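Curious: why this fold?
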Amino acid sequence: MQRKRPSVPPRTDELEPNPVVVKSGQRGAIAHETPGYTDAGVSTGVDVNMSTQHDETDLPQLVRTTTRLEEHIDKSLRHLCMDEKVTKEVWFEAAYLYLAEHPKAMKAVNGLAKERYQRRKRAADLRKLETMQRRLKG
């Protein structure tokens, strides 16, 4: 015997205010604005062809990267970037440019980075050993 589920009325409130149409290859793509933060993948609807005052050589050449961060650092950095209204990528660039101009600070950050790298490497080695043990036990 099948139980009939009660019908649920549709929601009348909006979960996310201000839907914005995104210019993308996908038809009907919609993004939602989050106060204080703009995702790098979301178009603002500005037509870049309208601004012809800048020579194309002035535009930065960007590359896509994947960054893996510890969860608590990622969360803190996302909140910082939301508050400052910048993306994480732009923040990383600015931090690097600042450090490049301050050699003592760069040396301190590089020392910390090496320590963190060794810690991550040890953690990865332990995960590999645990996986090998499980496979050997069958």
The radius of gyration is 23 Å. The beta strands are 19-21, 30-32. Helices lie at 71-84, 88-101, 103-137. The longest strand covers residues 19-21.
